[in-house]
Design a protein that fits this description.
Residues 1127-1155 have a biased composition (Basic and acidic residues). With 1937 residues, the chain is α/β, with parallel strands linked by helices. The protein has 47 helices and 61 strands. Strands 39, 40, 43, 44, 45, 46, 47, 48, 49, 50, 51 and 52 form a twelve-stranded mixed sheet that branches. The chain has a seven-stranded mixed sheet with strand order 54-60-61-59-58-56-57.
């Protein structure tokens, strides 16, 4: 038998067949029942061929749609064939036949060749001699992968059927004729060998199609079809599902299959040309041989046109998936004709009394392996099969559509066997249905099994419009939960039917069903829950009729008990037979219900209304498809009938003859171009030469950025910063120093010019520094690229630039990015346009991977970018601000944006002539014409009518007033406005009228007709007619160009308009064509937008709203009726965007804006009229930059050769009737301009300004209904599917939140829409792209200006990132040495020790940071200072802000943790594999003489830095840090280790000194507190950390410096000992360390300049340190340092090259010489001054290198600034400010104790309150306070005199000085009473003794015998306000006796 299981019969199948057979015999009145086995296996002779072969073989007809297979019960199959042949008794395959493994390695897999690589195609083998073994036949196999070829095979004829389709053995035996391989025993194996690549079960019956025979020439050719089997009729039973596609299954098929919305051919059915037919009796009555044979019936045959049609799967070629479809499909066009024999009779009516198996005798049982054979099938199907009477016709009433259920049951006995087809499974569409009825019916799929359609299938459209609404049961629980529902709330089929009826019944006669509207009805019904008991199937028919009865006959219900096909057949038959005069009585909708006794209901809706069916069919076409359809109709001449109709005027005259008559009548005279009535004629030559004397009231619209644009630009910038800060490493702003950009625009020449103008006007190229002033105008066009065929070369050049400039941040702006988002794979040349280009450019790998490229997509309708697969993160979206608060104080003259919402709400104004209109008269005319021409697309009819209307309006207003009554009032008003306004104006200004004609051919026709009519009527100089095509430049007649030049005062004769804005004031009709409006801005003179052609083909949100977006603009606030304004009206702030227009005085539009741009495009500036004419190019912080451009505020006169107008940088100008076209030379002209009439009344004239009104939009009824939903109770356009490239992800979802802002809508669409297969995002990456942003805002709101401003402030921010604020303060006083003896300017490079020794030490701390510290007394004070400073602290303890200046970082700057670049990432960032454990911890213990105890420090040393250290033999114990020798001369080596004490600045401290050291090897150690160690480890994993002991956690910087110095000295001793063992002299070891602050950023070298000043240049820290280290006799210096930079250094002649003075910030310290001088470890401030005074008094040598300076960055956080003094026990949440006087208190008092270190409190107290301790010293420089061994800051108005108590110390001469006070701070044993007696004090001088505790305080008083000369009181003892465990400091004050 072939296969082991081939003949098995499952018991259930057998029982079912047996049951059917018995039941059929009982019901049959004659004939014996067929034996069961005959039904299952054999077939009686007289059966014609099987229905399977009648059904369409889809492998041809779906060439373009191979994947759109049909699912039956959710099981995928590849084509209809698959399902049909699934039933065949093919047993020639092993189990699981098509689960094939991969082909063997190395074998050929090419289609048409066998695996051995031999060609098997008939075209190749036709002339080959093929050896055919005996008993074999050559047959042709067809493969779906190459449907155009037949493959030659040799098959054993025993396995092939005879001519009756019988006696074929089961199984297979075949040979390969290519390679000769023999003995293939399974067809699966054989099909693999010949590379058929089948995705379904291979079957010989399915794929072996033809016998191959030799023709007369001996060539092999295709012979007869292989007749596999005869016709078996299909079984039906209650539990069986038909294998035909049900509505649900066929839709589900799309889920797994084709989601391509682009129909490669609008007519996918016509794939069987007549040439394929066979003649005579051998031809199948169902046409082409591929469709199988039917033996001829003994009935009449008719030559009807038929082609099988598969519902949904074939028709709806753009279903994206079962749940989300928008019903776009190709309309069926008449296919190729095939002869077909059809019965002439109607179907037999089925009565309720019929049994489910009444015709089982004619229906075979279920076939083996039938996929749907399962009792739990998804959709139960009816069990009755109604036979088609083959011989005797049945009478059937054709009167009522409901007649099927009203007939008497005919006699069953008259049914004659055999029955050829199971009725109900097929529907034959009547011939000439469209011609006879004028209707192309639309079948809306409901639930259940649809039949197969034959015959005139071109006249039926199958639409899946509502099918998703019925699929609630397929929703998953997650979706239901998000809707707030459970599965129990899903609706039954009966409820769905009733809901559908209710919905259809309430639709108006001019409305069509909308999927989104019905979905919301279904959702509400589900949410409400059942209102009563469920509807039973038996109740359904009468309930349904009752629902339909309210429609007044518009909706009828047809109940069929057989199948849906019956009902459809009956309805179509009635339609075709109804006389045309009675067709008005036909219903618009017929809802066909099929009920069965099994309890299941099926239904569908047949749309028969003329308007409804046409609108539904047209709405299924995509824009490309309907434009193709229109082209087809125009090219093939189908419109000729229509065209001839319109050759006559409405009065019946021949239009052309009439026009010629008028032309002859006026001879050479034409209507006066302007300043004259339409009846005034002049000679044409005079008219051509007529020019206006002056332009209209011209205002030079200074280029401006308005607050919302600024706000949006800043939002974009902050989003870019957020990307950089996100930690994803996707954007490193710190590396960029320039900004460059490219703008991609849709393929429109006008849009390119418009964008180039914006760039020129904004001056952005100059502000970004990418073009210089002279070339910016010429080079602007390089920065705008059209997405056309040339885009690739330009993008390649751009991407080369991106790669070559890694330190430039490029921004690729994709403007109007919603226009073409077809994927590059599915994109093609479509209707003359390239598609998929944007995807190839914006989503190409180079763009995605470039780390210095941002992509900014800009769109008014971003919905298609916001699907589930969006490439843009929702966080990276910036939406235009939606300000709802109308500013009361705003002037009514100010401009506000008037957008789509405002147009909708304007209908509530109640004005007589609304600005959103529907031309009802026009619609009535259209309706009549549509009924007359059912074959033509409605847009063709609308276009012809529109052309006639405009032509007749022109005639009516000039030569033929009798035509007035035949023109719609709307058209007449617009044309009258167009013609009359120029006549009232002395400059000829008028309005623009925009007519939108999407089809280019129709637009050209309109232009030709209107121009012809205009010229013949003599109006050629009155107004222009322009074709606005994206593919062409603006073409304007010479005389109109001259008029525009005259208005501009432009002398350049070659100037022509390039943008629509250039046509400002020109009276013209612009016929705008193209698939979509592309974002072009229209002038203010645009008054009317005629959108009457935009009808039901535009039922998508983007498609519809972008058309109405043409009318959006800025209007004067006062024209919006206040009383009528709804509360939520979107009003914008006064200075919203468009500024100075004609509507507002300049002073009312003053705006606080940032610095203006360097406006290279020489604009006429009305200087001072608008605050700085400002465009921000300042920093993000809105502070002016120090590098301001001198050209930024000057006035430049525009040369006429470049008449560029300077408007505000917005996408549109508000329309106005005073036509402002900016000009430079005539900006002072003051003519008032023509007033435009108000919408309802004439506007009152104003003195100098006209109001700006909204444009008037005239819509079709379909568009009007969606834009004026409140008026009609319809859904608004916002609820439509957002874009043709996306689909709804679920049939039920919450309503669109269109009342909310863009962000909420974005989240909605991201949840509920999904990209279609042809969408660029369909196979996008799983995660959004990190460097992609989206800017969305309404049409014409000013987005271009916003993103150009964004580029500007982005550049400013990058400059700010490359700049740093450094302190810029002059030194307080220069050295006291005599300037006249200063050495010559070019001093020595290094100091001489002896010279330095001779210099006096400058005791005065001249560093500006000590401006508010106590001056130090010197015996020779600076002449300019009497010893005290005049500064006072403004508030207690608060230092005023210090001066800073922004400077550009150089190559040698130090950086913080935010800096990343390729060179230093290994320095500051951990290696990818490195872990923190790669650092080693080392304890280092030494004994500190100062502390008197052992100190343990911890080093954290990264592995790479270990060579700098010496470890013990075991390698675990740290012994010392290596030090070089003084004598080492290595050029690149830096000898001194660098220590940086840092706290609180792990991110902001400038600890990356890689660039400062030029990448050279160096030893850098960060000294950190113990509690901060983890933070510093995290940010600086490659740095050595020195961790201070925990006891220093709350200490100041003095402790860190102390420990650095102690450690360094101890290490020096260790190194000396270690190297001494190696023979090195002890004094040869390098004794210096560098101590550097964490805020040192840049270093400069100063050279004397040519003019006596000094020149500074940036140098590296390495060069500075190496220079100092190379100083001769360096070991004799105790400290070396640099001076602080200030801007004043460059302006004056340099002082002496070296000074002996205080050193700060960066010091090179000799730890050997300073061994006995320590930093005060307790100090928080002034520790450096204190140390240096002590070092100097010890006689040590300090040297400052004056030709080096250091810049210090202002870092507002970290250091001791972060130390907040607060009460220890906080009782309140709010922080309490504690004043400085509370920092001390009496001992043991109840004073509030503070949480702060005692030393910190003391220093802060002395700094702020010393005037209380030393009243006599206040402002008294002659009598300073004596301070022994320490320097404490007592505030700027108290001078201190430092004295050292050490023997042999160097002190200031104090002879004759009377001191006003004495300060003893923690004095040691060197301070003795005899020392104090050397000093003289004023009477009443005060004393302050500070000690660690009270006992030492008393001991000190006694030891120093202070009571002898000083008087103490008990109440003069104080302590710092700490609690005792914080160890407060105590001090005692006394008065000198």
């Amino acid at each position: 038998m072939g296969n082991s299981y081939a003949g098995q019969l499952k018991s259930a199948r057998f029982e079912e067949a047996l049951h059917n057979s018995i039941e059929a015999s009982l019901r049959s009145s004659g004939g014996d029942p067929q034996p069961v086995f005959t039904q299952l296996y054999l077939e009686p002779d007289q059966y014609p061929s099987n229905l399977e072969d009648i059904k369409p073989k889809m492998d041809l007809s779906m060439k373009s749609n191979l994947s759109s297979h049909v699912l039956v019960n959710c099981q995928s199959s590849n084509s209809i064939d698959d399902m049909d042949d699934e039933d065949d008794s093919d047993t020639s395959s092993p189990p699981l036949p098509y689960l094939q493994g991969p082909p063997p390695d190395g074998c050929c897999t090419v289609d048409g060749f066998c695996q051995a690589g031999k060609d098997l195609r008939l075209v190749s083998m036709a002339t080959e001699s093929i050896e055919v073994p005996t008993g074999f036949k050559l047959v042709g196999a067809k493969s779906s992968s190459i449907p155009e070829h037949i493959l030659v095979c040799a098959v054993d004829k025993r396995f092939l059927p005879d001519e009756n389709g019988k006696n074929a053995l089961l199984g297979f035996s075949g040979n390969c004729v290519g390679c000769g391989e023999k003995g293939f025993r399974y067809f699966t194996e054989f099909s693999n060998h010949i590379n058929m690549k089948l995705s379904t079960q291979p079957k010989k019956q399915k794929h072996l199609k033809y016998y191959l025979v030799k023709n007369s020439q001996g060539a092999l050719c295709k012979g007869t079809l292989i007749c596999w089997k005869e016709c078996k009729t299909r079984p039906f039973s209650g539990s069986a599902s038909s294998s035909k596609p049900s509505s649900s299954s066929s839709l589900s098929s799309k889920e797994n299959g084709d989601t391509n919305g682009h129909s490669p051919s609008p007519f996918p059915l016509s794939d069987s040309p007549p040439a394929r037919m066979q003649s005579g009796s051998s031809s199948g009555i169902f046409g082409p041989p591929e469709l199988g044979f039917l033996k001829p019936l003994n009935t009449l045959t008719h030559g009807t046109k038929t082609l099988p049609i598969v519902p949904t799967a074939l028709r709806v070629n753009s279903l994206t998936n079962g749940l989300s479809m928008d019903g776009r499909s190709s309309l069926l066009s008449p296919p190729h004709t095939n002869p077909l024999a059809t019965p002439t009779h109607g179907y037999r009516a089925t009565e309720p009394g019929d049994s489910p198996a009444s015709s089982a005798m004619s229906s075979g049982p279920p076939k083996k392996r039938h996929r749907s054979w399962h009792p739990t099938s998804l959709v139960p199907f009816p069990a009755t099969a109604v036979p088609v009477p083959a011989i005797r016709p049945l009478t059937c009433s054709s009167g009522s559509l409901l007649s099927l259920t009203n007939q008497q049951p005919p006699s069953v006995s008259g049914v004659i066997q055999p029955q050829p087809i199971t009725a109900g499974e097929t529907v034959i569409i009547p011939d000439n249905l469209l011609n006879s009825s004028g209707v192309r019916p639309v079948l809306l799929i409901g639930q259940g099994t649809l039949p197969y359609f034959f015959g005139n299938v071109g006249d039926l459209v199958v639409s899946p419009l509502l099918v998703s609404c019925y699929k609630g049961r397929e929703l998953n629980e997650k979706t239901l939960a998000s809707l707030g529902m459970s599965a129990s709330q899903l609706l039954t089929t009966e409820t769905m039917i009733l809901l559908t009826l209710q919905y259809l019944a309430r639709l108006g006669t001019e409305q069509i069903p909308l999927r989104e509207e019905f979905e919301q009805i279904v959702l509400k019904a589900m949410l409400c829950g059942p209102t009563g008991p469920p509807v039973s199937p038996s109740q359904l028919p009468w309930l349904a009729r009752m629902e339909a009865s309210v429609s007044g006959g518009c909706v009828q219900v047809l109940v069929s008990h057989g199948s849906l096909g019956e009902g459809i057949s009956e309805s179509l038959r009635s339609l075709s037979e109804t006389p045309s005069q009675q067709q008005q009585c036909l219903p618009n909708y017929v809802l066909i219900i099929c009920t069965s006794k099994s309890g299941a209901n099926e239904f569908c809706v047949l749309v028969l209304g003329k308007y409804q069916s046409r609108a539904l069919a047209e709405s299924m076409l995509s824009t490309n498809e309907f434009l193709k359809e229109i082209s087809y109709e125009l090219i093939t001449g189908k419109v000729s009938v229509l065209a001839s109709h319109f050759q006559s005027t409405s009065l019946g005259d021949n239009m052309d003859k009439q026009l010629v008559r008028y032309q002859r009548k006026r001879k050479d005279r034409v209507v006066q171009p302007f300043q004259g009535h339409l009846t005034e004629y002049i000679h044409s030559q005079e008219a051509a030469a007529m020019l206006p004397e002056s332009g209209p009231d011209l205002l030079s619209d200074g280029f401006q950025i308005h607050p919302p644009q600024l706000s949006v630009a800043r939002s974009l910038l902050s989003q870019v910063c957020a990307i950089a800060d996100s930690g994803s490493q996707s954007l490193d702003l710190g590396r960029f120093c320039k900004v460059d950009f490219l703008i991609l625009v849709p393929p429109s020449h006008v849009l390119v010019h418009q964008t180039v103008q914006r760039i020129q006007q904004s001056g952005v190229l100059i502000d970004l520094g990418i073009e210089d002033d002279s070339l910016a105008l010429q080079k602007s066009d390089k920065y705008v690229v059209r997405l056309d065929a040339e885009v690739h070369t330009k993008m390649e050049a751009f991407m080369r630039k991106v790669k070559q400039n890694p330190y430039t941040l490029f921004v690729l702006v994709h403007d109007n990015s919603h226009v073409d988002l077809t994927s590059a794979l599915s994109g093609s040349v479509c209707h003359g346009e390239l598609q998929g280009l944007a995807d190839r450019v914006v989503n190409c790998p180079e763009v995605l991977e470039a780390i210095n490229l941002l992509v900014l997509q800009v769109s008014c309708f971003p919905f298609t970018l916001q699907s589930r697969q969006s490439r843009i993160s929702p966080l990276n979206e910036v939406h235009w601000p939606n300000t709802e608060n109308p500013q009361a104080e705003a002037s009514p003259k100010d401009l506000v944006y008037f957008g789509l919402k405002d147009y909708s709400s304007s209908l509530q104004w109640g004005v007589a002539s609304p600005i959103l209109r529907c031309d009802d008269a026009f619609e009535r005319m259209v309706k009549t014409l549509l009924e007359r021409h059912p074959h033509l697309h409605s847009m063709v009819i609308r276009s012809y009518l529109l052309i006639q209307q405009y032509t007749e309006a022109l005639m009516a207003l000039t030569a033929a007033p009798s035509l007035r009554d035949h023109v719609t009032p709307q058209t007449l008003a617009m044309v009258e406005d167009l013609l009359s306004v120029p006549g009232r104006s002395r400059h000829g200004c008028g309005h623009m009228l925009l007519v939108r004609v999407p089809s280019l051919q129709l637009a050209r026709l309109a232009q030709e007709r209107l121009e012809e009519a205009r010229d013949k009527l003599g109006l050629q100089y009155r107004f222009a007619v322009l074709l606005g095509s994206p593919a062409a430049e603006i073409s304007l007649p010479v005389h109109f160009c001259a008029r525009l030049r005259a208005w501009r005062g432009c002398k350049n004769e070659e100037w022509v308009p390039h943008t629509y804005e250039d046509l400002e004031g020109l009276p013209c009709i612009v016929i705008l064509t193209g698939k979509d409006p592309l974002g072009e801005t229209f002038p203010r003179s645009l008054k009317y937008c005629d959108l009457r052609l935009i009808d039901s083909s535009y039922l998508m949100r983007t498609a519809l709203e972008q058309e109405v977006g043409l009318a959006c603009s800025y209007v004067t606030r006062r024209v919006i009726p206040e009383t009528k304004t709804p509360a939520g009206r979107e009003e914008r702030p006064t200075d919203d965007k468009r500024g100075s227009g004609e509507t507002a005085d300049h002073d009312e539009l003053q705006m606080e804006l940032e610095r203006p741009p360097s406006n290279a495009s020489a604009a006429t500036r009305t200087s001072g009229s608008i605050t700085e004419n400002g465009v921000s190019s300042s920093s993000v912080l809105d502070k002016p930059s120090s590098h301001s451009n001198p050209s930024s505020s000057r006035n430049i006169m525009d040369s006429c050769s470049s008449p560029v107008r300077f408007k505000q940088e917005c996408d549109s100008q508000a329309p106005s009737s005073s036509f402002s076209s900016a000009s430079s030379s005539s900006s002072s002209s003051s003519s008032p301009g023509a007033q435009r009439p108000s919408q309802s009344t004439q506007a009152p004239r104003e003195s100098s300004r006209a109001q700006v009104f909204p444009r008037t939009a005239v819509l079709s009824r379909a568009a009007y209904a969606l834009l004026a939903p409140e008026a009609l109770g319809q859904p608004s356009s916002a609820s439509l599917l957002p874009h043709a490239d996306v689909a709804w992800s679920s049939p039920l979802r919450p309503p669109v939140p269109h009342a909310l802002g863009g962000a909420e809508q974005s989240l909605y669409y991201r949840q509920w829409t999904t990209a279609r297969q042809h969408h660029a995002d369909y196979e996008g990456p799983a995660l959004p792209h990190p460097r992609r942003l989206l800017l969305s805002g309404p049409p014409q709101v000013g987005k271009t200006g916003a993103y150009l401003q964004f580029l500007r402030i982005l550049f400013r921010m990058l400059i700010r990132l490359l700049e740093v604020d450094v302190y810029d303060e002059e030194e307080l006083e220069e050295d006291v040495q005599d300037k006249s003896k200063a050495p010559p300017a070019s001093g020595p490079q290094w100091p001489d020790v002896e010279d330095i020794r001779k210099l006096p030490f400058d005791l005065y701390p001249s560093d500006p940071k000590f401006r508010y510290a106590s001056p130090v007394y010197a015996d020779r004070m600076p002449k300019t200072l009497n010893g005290v400073k005049t500064e006072r602290l403004e508030a207690e303890g608060e230092l005023p802000k210090r001066n800073t200046v922004s400077v550009r970082l150089s190559l040698f700057a130090a950086h913080n943790a935010f800096h990343h670049c390729e060179q230093c990432h290994h320095y500051s960032e951990p290696a990818p594999a490195a872990q923190l454990s790669d650092c080693t911890f080392h304890a280092f213990t030494f004994c500190s003489s100062m502390l008197g105890e052992e100190v343990q420090l911890h080093f954290i040393i990264p592995k790479a830095k270990e060579p700098h250290f010496v470890f013990s033999q075991q390698g675990s114990h740290l012994e010392s840090m290596r030090l070089p020798l003084i004598s080492d001369k290595e050029s690149g080596m830096l000898k001194s280790p660098i220590f940086t004490p840092t706290t609180g600045r792990q991110e902001h401290g400038l600890l990356n000194i890689y660039h400062a050291m030029e990448g050279a090897e160096h030893l850098h150690i960060l000294v950190v507190k113990q509690y901060e160690m983890p933070l510093y480890r995290k940010y600086w994993p490659n740095h050595i950390l020195l961790v201070l002991p925990a006891m220093f956690n709350s200490s100041g910087v003095g402790a860190a410096r102390f420990m650095i110095k102690e450690l360094s000295y101890h290490n020096l001793e260790l190194e000396r000992n270690r190297q001494e063992e190696q023979g090195v002299k002890r004094q040869d070891v390098w004794p210096f360390i560098v101590m550097m602050d964490d805020s040192c950023v840049l270093w400069n070298a100063h050279q004397p300049g040519p003019e006596g000043d000094s020149e500074a240049m940036n140098v590296s820290l390495k060069s500075v340190l190496q220079h100092m280290e190379a100083t001769p006799k360096i070991s004799l210096y105790a400290m070396c340092g640099l001076r602080k930079w200030s801007s004043a250094l460059s302006s004056r002649a340099p002082t002496s090259p070296f000074s002996r003075c205080h050193l700060h910030d960066l010091v090179m310290l000799n730890v050997d010489l300073t061994q006995n001088v320590q930093y005060d470890l307790n100090r928080f401030t002034c520790e450096e001054v204190d140390f240096i005074l002590r070092a100097n008094s010890s006689g040590l040598l300090l040297c400052r290198f004056n030709h080096f300076s250091i810049m210090k960055k202002h870092i507002p956080i970290g250091g001791h600034k972060d130390f907040l003094i607060k009460p220890k026990l906080m009782r309140m949440e709010t922080p309490v400010r504690v004043c400085a006087s509370q920092y001390v208190c009496a001992p043991d008092s109840e004073h509030t104790l503070l949480s702060a270190p005692a030393q910190f409190l003391l220093e802060k107290f002395l700094q702020s309150c010393s005037h209380r301790l030393f009243p006599l010293a206040l402002g008294n420089s002659a009598n300073p306070v004596l301070s022994i061994d320490s320097y404490l800051n007592l505030g700027p108005q108290i001078q201190t005199c430092y004295m050292s108590s050490r023997p042999h110390s160097v002190n200031v001469d104090h002879q004759g000085v009377m001191f006003s006070g004495l300060l003893l701070y923690l004095c040691d044993s060197f301070v003795v009473s005899s020392l104090l007696k050397k000093f003289n004090f004023l009477k009443g001088a005060t004393l302050c003794v500070i000690c660690q505790d009270r006992s030492s305080l008393r001991q000190t008083i006694v030891r120093l015998e202070l009571e002898d000369e000083w008087q103490f009181r008990l109440r003069d003892e104080f302590q710092t306000a700490n609690c005792s465990e914080d160890r407060p400091l105590y001090f005692l004050t006394g008065r000198h006796i």
